[in-house]
Fold Rod shape-determining protein MreD.
Amino acid sequence: MSRILLPFITYIAFVLESTVMQVLAPEHYGWDFLMVPHFAMVLIILMSCYLKPSYGIVYGLIFGLLSDLIYTDLIGVYMFSTALVAYFIAVLSRYLFSNFFVTILLSILGVAGLEFLVYGLNSLIGIADVKMADFFYDRLLPTLILNAVFTIIVYFPFAKLLRKIEG
């Protein structure tokens, strides 16, 4: 059952990313910032914290590739970035005591790492032409707030599921 449930829940979170933004898009309310939901990434980070690192890396590759195929014109940026962030979060979580606050902090750190990697790679290639200050205030901070709220909402039920899978 867990072999089906974990990918299914992650896929539902991935689908919710676009669904939530159709309802909560800031431009609908006259705001000029950008919130990017990374709900599947948050679940992948939680998997990296509670399960073997290979779970986070494999799910990062799969859902990063899905993000590349659906949302971007360049294949590989999200796939590489998601898997790399999942690996680093898995390594960090092995050295830190895993509780609610540390996991929330790791989730925020992971989403920030993903955003910076994608921004950096897109800037390197020449796709992104946004200044760092504009990126920070108009995209990164709202994105971190949205994903932190999502992490707080899903932490307890998802961590309980992961402990059951692990044990």
